[in-house]
TrEMBL record, chain A:
Keywords: Initiation factor, Protein biosynthesis, Translation regulation
GO molecular function, one term: translation initiation factor activity
Function: Additional factor that functions in concert with eIF-2 and the initiator tRNA in directing the ribosome to the proper start site of translation.
Protein name (Swiss-Prot/TrEMBL): Translation initiation factor SUI1
Positions of the SUI1 domain: 31-101
GO biological process: regulation of translation
InterPro entries, alphabetized: SUI1, SUI1_dom_sf, SUI1_euk
PROSITE patterns per record: SUI1 (PS50296)
Chain segments carrying region Disordered: 1-26
Family: Belongs to the SUI1 family.
NCBIfam families xref list: SUI1_MOF2 (TIGR01160)
TrEMBL record, chain B:
Residues annotated as domain GON: 229-338
Organism annotation: Podospora fimiseda
One of the GO BP terms on file: formation of translation preinitiation complex
UniProtKB keywords: Initiation factor, Metal-binding, Protein biosynthesis
Protein name (Swiss-Prot/TrEMBL): Domain found in IF2B/IF5-domain-containing protein
Cellular component GO terms, alphabetical: eukaryotic translation initiation factor 2 complex
Molecular function GO labels: metalloendopeptidase activity; mRNA binding; translation initiation factor activity; translation initiation factor binding; zinc ion binding
């Protein structure tokens, strides 16, 4: 009961408006998962737009261990920090991003998987 | 429901259906005239024939209907007939027979079927729908099935079994036949005729948007040629450049267009893969989100935004511009600078 009241108190119309605009901006910023062909059968997976509240380095470390692949973080001037992984990891990384327990627990709608 | 009502209260039934029937009739005459001139002759007989035969006349050859109409007119009068034209109602009531009630039962559903069909026709008429293979297949299937059915019916040769040639109008399909036709048979006939006369409509329920499959050839070892891109773009009513840009953005490559307007994509891609990308393109940039119709137009509206305008429902929505995201540097050489 007391928690409910606290929640109500925290409702400040102006703060909310500010917060809301930030939110919409964030929902528009999709996380893009792309695939690129390299020579032969080899491919690269790039993950672009992971929110900055997450530690990219730690994510990469976890991913590398889980997917058994190598990867780097590339800081692009336009796209920000991009995680680049070896091989086609699109479905795996999507699961990782949406998984609320072992992963980041992001909303499915914010993720866009590109490629064939 | 409509079949049950008449048995209980005949008088009420005629009142309930009068308006509806007329509406259908009006619809029918409008569409019939447009589709086939001969059918106007059939329509002229409709006041004297029950709606069932009217439906038949509309679909089967008009002359046959015209021939049959005078014969069956005196035999079949019923409440269902009265619904057809309110003016002739009095005449009909005089010669009411027992068969009338029975006939009325079957006439009502038939009329309903017709009504559904006509409204469909009216809607679809404006669109110029290309005949697709699926419709043909469906028709073939239907015809086959019907033949089988007829053979089976003939083999049984029983009074119970409803037989007769639908096309020729014999047996159960005769105009002066007063026996109730099974619902199965009626629906079968409805769909058979529909697929026969209007193949476009027959497939409307499960009408799928068809584009020719992309033709992929391999050029050398590292390039893929997408041969029928212009054809597909034409089908989707989109600019080649737009589709090309989308393909490149999604596949994470680049490429060029060769002399015969074929698209050369860097990298090895299979037909299936290109197909998938095209599918997403269609979902995002072609189909209308409101009515799912692919009959849309992409235009550059104000503010440099792209808009999709639906031609069938008129809705308009903005779509995102195609953006190429981050592309990792592949290969040894960097592109021009850091």
């Amino acid at each position: 009961m007391s928690t409910q009241i606290e929640n109500l108190k925290s409702y400040d119309p102006f703060a909310e408006a500010d917060d809301d605009s930030g939110q919409t901006k964030q929902t528009q910023e999709y996380i893009h998962i792309r695939i690129q062909q390299r020579n032969g059968r080899k491919t690269l997976t790039t993950v672009q737009g992971i929110p900055s509240k997450f530690d990219h380095k730690k994510i990469l470390k976890a991913i590398k261990k889980e997917f058994a692949c190598n990867g780097t973080i590339i800081s692009d001037s336009e796209m920000g920090e991009v995680i680049q992984l070896q091989g086609d990891q699109r479905s795996k990384i999507r699961e990782f991003l949406t998984d609320s327990e072992g992963g980041l627990g992001l909303d499915e709608k914010t993720i866009k998987v590109h490629g064939f | 429901m409509s079949a049950e009502e008449p048995t209980k209260r005949t008088s009420r039934k005629s009142v309930a259906f009068t308006e509806e029937q007329i509406v259908v009739d009006a619809d029918g005459s409008v569409t019939m005239v447009a589709s086939n001139n001969d059918e106007t002759t059939a329509m002229s007989h409709t006041p004297r024939t029950p709606p069932l035969s009217e439906a038949l006349g509309a679909f089967t050859d008009a002359p046959a209907a015209a021939d049959a109409a005078p014969v069956d007119a005196p035999l079949t009068e019923d409440a269902g007939d009265g619904l057809d034209l309110s003016l002739l109602k009095k005449k009909k009531k005089k010669v009411k027979t027992e068969a009338a009630a029975e006939d009325g039962d079957e006439a009502a559903p038939a009329g309903g079927d017709e009504g559904v069909d006509l409204t469909m026709k009216k809607k679809k008429k404006k669109k110029v729908v290309k005949e697709d293979e699926f419709a043909k297949k469906l028709e073939a299937l239907k015809l086959e099935g019907k033949d089988d059915e007829e053979a089976a019916a003939a083999a049984a040769a029983d009074s119970d079994v409803q037989e007769g040639d639908m096309e020729k109008g014999t047996g159960i399909w005769q105009h002066d036949e007063t026996k109730t036709i099974n619902y199965d048979l009626l629906t079968e006939r409805f769909f058979a005729l529909l697929s026969q006369k209007n193949p476009d409509h027959a497939s409307s329920g499960t009408r799928s948007y068809k584009i020719p499959p992309p033709q992929c050839l391999r050029e050398g070892n590292k390039k893929t040629i997408f041969a029928n891109l212009p054809e597909i773009c034409k089908r989707m009513k989109r600019a080649d450049e737009h589709v090309t840009a989308y393909l490149f953005a999604e596949l994470g490559t680049n490429g060029s267009v060769d002399g015969s307007r074929r698209l050369v994509i860097k990298g090895r891609f299979q037909q299936k893969q290109i197909e998938n990308v095209l599918r997403t393109y269609i979902i995002e940039y072609v189909t209308c989100k409101t009515c799912r119709s692919p009959n849309t137009e992409l235009s550059k509206g104000e503010n440099r935004l792209y808009f999709i305008t639906c031609n069938s429902c008129g809705s308009r929505r903005s779509v995102q511009a195609i953006k190429t995201g981050f592309s990792a540097q592949v290969g040894k050489r960097r592109k021009n600078k850091v």
